[in-house]
Amino acid sequence: MVAIVDYGVGNLFSLRSSFSIIGENVFVTGDPDVIRSADRIILPGVGAFGDAAKKLSDSGLADVLKELAKEGKPILGICLGMQLLFDKSYEYGEHEGLGLVKGNVRPIADKVTADYKIPHIGWNALKFTDKKSPLFKYIKEGDCVYFVHSYYGADCEESLTATAEYGFDVTAAVENGNVYGTQFHPEKSGEVGMKILKAFCEL
Amino acid sequence: MITKRIIPCLDVKDGRVVKGVNFLGLADVSSPVKLAKFYSDNGADELVFYDITASAEGRALFTDILCEAASTIFIPLTVGGGINTVDDFDRVLKCGADKVSVNSGAIRNPDLINAAAQKYGDQCVVLSVDAKRVDGTYHVFAKGGREDTGMDAIEWIKRGQSMGAGEIVLNSIDTDGVKGGFDLEMLGAVCEIATVPVIASGGAGNMEHFTELFKTLPKVDAGLAASIFHFGEVDIHDLKKTLDSNGIIVRL
Q: Cβ contact (<8 Å) for B120 and A124?
């Protein structure tokens, strides 16, 4: 069973549907007990980091996620959900993340010239790193996935599993033991995305 | 590298696709869900559902259809038509839309752009502009292109961006329906000032028009069309192969 953590940010309709399509039992929930009883956990998110981080900690779910990460339960953060896994974000100020993956979140605008529009939005090709991720076992390098973001995961070389070229190598996916993150939206990335979610469900 | 996007647009009225659709092998050609699935399976990078219904019943049918489409296909969905308030954003986002496009609603009340961008993020707000040449400048037209607002299109787009629009759809009324190619001149003027992605609309008649669009204006991010896809005049797979062989980066 997969639990999609509902902490009041973002639109979880497509995410829930995509797990149903691959035949996975799925719950959208903010209940710590249901989240604890799940085999796998999805941390979604769109919007601003500060607001999302506050909601996670105010609801007590931040502590639940940290506890489950320690127990070895597979956790996948998607988009802002990936960014929340890091130590710190510099989006409108400075905000603490969950600290489950070493790294920080910084503006794309600091890295690219004005020729690159922000947000980085659209389909971009994945480049794998030497750290081979089990999430990618059904897809190949060069496959395209859908991105929408204005900030990126920085200072995370040791956990990096894939990047995408957008004026520089943008962090596309990270991994620290049982904690995974994708900057792109697998639930909006057609068949390639479904294969990534399927691989996550087999962990 | 980010790829150029190809986006079919479906006009939906009372829950059915209008503007004839003619596909071999597709039994129910006016089912938005089946058509959306067909496009998604055939290489479309994104879909636009445009609700042209006026009645409340039609609107409810539209959201049902949207929910069904969003639980069947997994590429980005943009919804437009009849978006006048932040509640309208809420209504379609809950049904699985990823982006919402505003047009006349934003002309009447420009603060809608601001309010929606603050609530849902810039990436969620698409500013759709119908523009036409008037006395040597480009004017914004409202109500589906029937009414000249007198506003300068370039200034309106600048304002929309500064208020939080995350993408611009530029539909040239001058080239729309003519099938003689995109309005490269008007698009070029918009690309000069655009800081967010620009989607070209109006005028595509064949594959070469897309090649010409992306070759002439590398700053254009996507091409949108309706009837040439619906009538099978252009197959999206073939189009993307043609673009690829012309050195334009696409998702194959």
A: no
